[in-house]
Amino acid sequence: MSKIPVGISTCLLGEQVRYDGGHKHSRFCTEVLARHFDFHPTCPEVAAGLGTPRPAVHLREIDNNLRLIDAKGNADHTESMQAVIDQVVPSLGHLRGYILMAKSPSCGMERIKVHNEEGQLIHRDGRGLFAEALMQAYPLLPVEEEGRLHDDQLRENFVERVFAYDDWLQNVVADLSPEALIQFHTRHKFQLLAHNEAIYRTLGPLLADLKCTPLEQIAKQYISGFMAAMACKVSRGAHVNAMQHLMGYLRDSMGDADRQVLTEQIEAYHRGELPLIVPMTLLRMAQRREPVDYVALQQYLSPYPDELGLRNRV
Ligand code: SF4
């Protein structure tokens, strides 16, 4: 299987590009995710010609605009950063996700310190200039900060979104047709149901009549709703609901004893006594024993490679 192209802040790969000449190597990225993701690194500050090592920079709000200024107020790097943004960001449309370094005035996704013209801290709700341009240009792109990937649920959610978005770009956008759109929706129905049942219930009807509106318009509306739904954390109750629905399709292929065990394991998962992988494995075993075509299509059973082990921790 070819690897999925994902953008990343260069320092997370262990490259010594930080202002202090160091790096922020993420072993999870280079040793686990790199088996499935083809990382495309960018260090916006090095690309902007700031050099390594370099004086630390921060954000200052001047005349309602954010500017990238060295922390001692000696140099304004906003124009060179903007030139990097103008050159690099438009070339990132092939990416299926992006992992950013936290706390950076260039790469940070959230809670970045913003100072006033004199360099005094005024709030911590900023976003790095490169991160802001990236997220504005690609609102559907799954983007996450490396630090947040230490949270089991956020990590699992991010990886699941990257794989789903890859499916969308490869199998729908590459050759848009009513069939491709409907097949995508069918493959991801149970994921949608688990992530956000309200959005799930709007997306089906959106595809009910594909003749009355231009297909590109429907596809755009669909994927906006889809990615918004997928960004929602899945509660244990929502997984239970989705698994019970799936169990309904497998009812005939399971004996009474198997059904009883699966029901008990789903309940134990609901109480927080077991990880998701346990009832999910039983569902997959039932499906493997007597395959049901509709269930076989569902990405919910295997949204990403098992070896990532993400469902052992949620
Ligand atoms: S956080 Fe971004 S700008 Fe800073 S060193 Fe890492 S890649 Fe470069």
Any overview of this molecule?
- α7 packs across α8 and α8 (197-206) packs antiparallel against α9 (215-230).
- The chain has 13 helices and eight strands.
- The strands form two sheets. Strands 2-1-5-8 form a four-stranded parallel sheet.
- The chain starts with a strand and ends in a 17-residue tail after the last helix.
- It has 314 residues and is an alpha/beta fold.
- The protein has two domains: 4-150, no CATH class; 151-314, no CATH class.
- Bound molecules: iron/sulfur cluster.
- The site of iron/sulfur cluster (SF4) has 13 residues, from α2.
When the domains are counted, the total is: 2
Contiguous helical run count: 13
Mind telling me the C-alpha Rg?
22 Å
Query: Which strand order spans the largest sheet, edge to edge or round the barrel?
Result: 2-1-5-8
Content-based structural category: alpha/beta
Query: How many beta-strand segments?
Result: 8
N-end to C-end Cα span: 26 Å
Q: How would you sum up the global shape?
A: elongated
* Share of helix, binned: 40-55%
Mean pLDDT: 96
Beta fraction of the residues? 5-15%
Query: How would a crystallographer describe the biggest sheet?
Result: 4 strands, parallel
Q: From N to C, what is the helix and strand string?
A: EHEHEEHEEEHEHHHHHHHHH
Bound molecules: iron/sulfur cluster
Low-confidence segments, given as residue ranges, are none
Regarding quaternary structure, how should these chains be classified? Answer: single chain
